[in-house]
Amino acid sequence: MYQVFYRKWRPKAFSEVVGQPHVTATLQNALQSGRLSHAYLFTGSRGTGKTSCAKILSKAVNCLHPVDGNPCNECEICKGIDSGSLTDIIEIDAASNNGVDNIRDLREETNFTPVRAKYRVYIIDEVHMLSTGAFNALLKTLEEPPSYVIFILATTEVHKLPQTILSRCQRFDFKRIMPEDIAKRLMFVAENEGLQLTDDGANLIARIADGALRDALSILDRCAGTEGQIDAEYVSEAVGIANRSYLFDLSDCFRNGDTPGALELINTLHNNSCDMERLCSELINHFRNLMIVKTVKDPAPLIICTADELERLKKQANSYKLEDILYSLSVVEETYSKIKRGLNQKIETEMAAVELCSPSLCKSNDALLSRISAIEAKINSIFSGDVKITPEKKNTDEKPNESPAAPAKNKEPEPAKQTEPEEKPPVSDPAPKPQDENIPFMQWTEALEELRQTDMPLAAILQGSRAFVRGEFVLISSRNSTLEQFIRVGSHSSAVKAAIMKVSGKKYRLGILKSEEEAKSNKDPLTGLINKVNKFNQS
Questions:
Q1: How far apart are CA 483 and CA 133, in angstroms?
Q2: Looking at residue 295, which CATH number applies to its domain?
Q3: Is residue 68 situated within a structural domain?
Q4: What is the pLDDT of residue 284?
Q5: Host H or E run for residue 51
Q6: Rounded CA separation 313/306 (Å)
Q7: pLDDT along the chain (539 residues), means of 10
Q8: 392 is a domain residue
Q9: What angle is formed at CA 352 by the lines to CA 351 and CA 353, rounded to 5 degrees?
Q10: In what order do the strands lie in the sheet with 509-512?
Q11: CATH of the domain at 225
């Protein structure tokens, strides 16, 4: 009879267990030294080897010819355990045997000595499913079982176990298996099964499995029907992650404000039997991938997709601002929770699409930050490069029109002053100089982003701060009283100057903006709005 891969290739010795050396080495040492516990607790996510190790341990403690802590798998005891004919090894599914009566029956069975083996081993899987009464009935037996009884408890949700149970067991935490270890095991299985599994196919299966070797073997079993190569493209089609271009099209509509296009695409997907709850789930994962691409230098290990799809994600992420990605992610997550509560799926999805295409319709804090980010981007595009910000000179332009004769009188002493370059410009010139004004430094947000890469402590102190340009100085305004101490340190001030130089292309000196000067600079309405939003976020 055909056996699925995860059953056929289940490890039969500790040396065959993948990705859990901290568990297997400890158990082998305990078996070799004879220091056995009466109760073990195996915890960890699904498919990481908890039940497999429990069966190996039950064989190892009863094996007639153990080898370095491993069962021989050749004696009658080992073969009886593998075939399930040995009645001294009892597996219990706590999900379906979770009552007090079930545990009372188990407690009565422990009074009988083993029939053929040395130890009677009870493997209780998904033990967190036991009721409170069942846990209480198990306590005394678990604490002081007969000398020939060993309990092995396995669970994926250890936080649901009472402390009274945890304190009576020797605990082992199973980690998620690394993708490279899973891929190596898949190549071994494929070679023995005569399958043409490519390296990129094995790596993609390993990433999809998310640390669970059992899931990886199940995916390989699903792909085994092909007569050709099992590459990344075939795997993506088999597991249903191919042809997800509609996610890119839909997010492009959101970014471009194309409400009719987004609604038409949603309607087409709905008519093609696309479940709206699943669509929201896929959009959440899509915007999460864009967030990872936007914030991580090497996103490939963190994203489950093909190489072509990763390049497309990188291209789309470049056209998005991080604030817009986070705003879109929050809107879709909220829509997903509404759909889960039983509201009309299509209408909720359409409402989310309209909101994402037109952030001005939403009054949430995230939407406001997204709109401010767009305004900042437009302002940065105006003032970027070598464009200089100069004050208005309305008064000087109007003076010639006031009285033609007046300028002539005022300018009589000017020729004499021109021969003396040491003197300052005439006081009568009403035009304010750029050095006398505080001009908002528009690239300050980008400078803080650069600073986070080089000086994280100072970047944290500067959170919520603003900066202004006055002549050759960049003046920093911050409510954090420790800024002045930090900025006096040469390494910190150099980091700020380097970040400003990188985003503006100009070399500035640093200064602290005093409170009176800050009050004058608060005339900018956009700056005031951003300050209010920052204060709201910090409260």
A1: 58
A2: 1.20.272.10
A3: yes
A4: 93
A5: helix 50-62
A6: 11
A7: 85 90 92 90 91 92 89 90 87 88 88 89 92 89 89 92 91 92 92 89 88 91 83 83 82 90 90 86 92 89 82 90 88 89 85 84 58 61 45 43 43 44 39 59 85 80 83 83 73 85 84 62 51 52
A8: no
A9: 90
A10: 439-440, 466-470, 473-477, 509-512
A11: 1.10.8.60
Sign of the CA dihedral 487, 491, 497, 498? Answer: negative
The number of domains in the chain is 4
> Is 412 within the bounds of a domain?
no
Residue 161 and residue 195 in one domain: no
Rounded Cα–Cα distance for residues 394 and 267 (Å): 56
Query: Taking CA 7 as the corner, what is the angle to CA 212 and CA 121, rounded to the nearest 5 degrees?
Result: 90
Same domain, 222 and 204: yes
CATH of the domain at 63: 3.40.50.300
Q: Does residue 528 share a domain with residue 442?
A: yes
Cα separation, 124 vs 416, in Å, equals 103
For the chain, the C-alpha Rg in angstroms (whole number) is 35
Question: Are residue 131 and residue 29 in the same domain, yes or no?
Answer: yes
Domain of 186 in residue numbering reads as 179-239
| Cα–Cα dist 60/71, whole Å | 5
How big is the CA angle at 244 (ends 239 and 249), to the nearest 5 degrees? Answer: 170
What Å distances lie between residue 126 and 95, 96, 130, 502, CA to CA?
A: 6, 10, 8, 55
Q: How many helices (H) and strands (E) does the chain have?
A: 27, 9
Q: Of 174, 198, 222, which closes a domain?
A: 174
DSSP 130-166: S-HHHHHHHHHHHHS--TTEEEEEEES-GGGS-HHHH
Q: What is the structure's pLDDT at 401?
A: 44
Asked whether residue 183 falls in the same domain as residue 286, the answer is no
Tokens representing residue 518 in the block: 């800050």
Closest to 493 measured CA to CA, from 477, 509, 471, 470: 509
Residue 377, token pair as written in the block = 């981007």
Q: Are residues 63 and 166 in the same domain?
A: yes
Within this chain, do residues 112 and 44 fall inside the same structural domain, yes or no? yes
Counting other chains too, the contacts that 271-279 makes at CB distance below 8 Å and 24 or more residues apart are 275/345, 276/339, 276/345, 276/346, 276/348, 276/349, 277/336, 277/339, 277/340, 277/345, 279/349
Distance CA 94, CA 212 (A): 21
**Residues making up the chain, counted from first to last:** 539
Determine, yes or no, domain membership for 324: yes
* Residues 155 and 125 reside in one and the same domain: yes
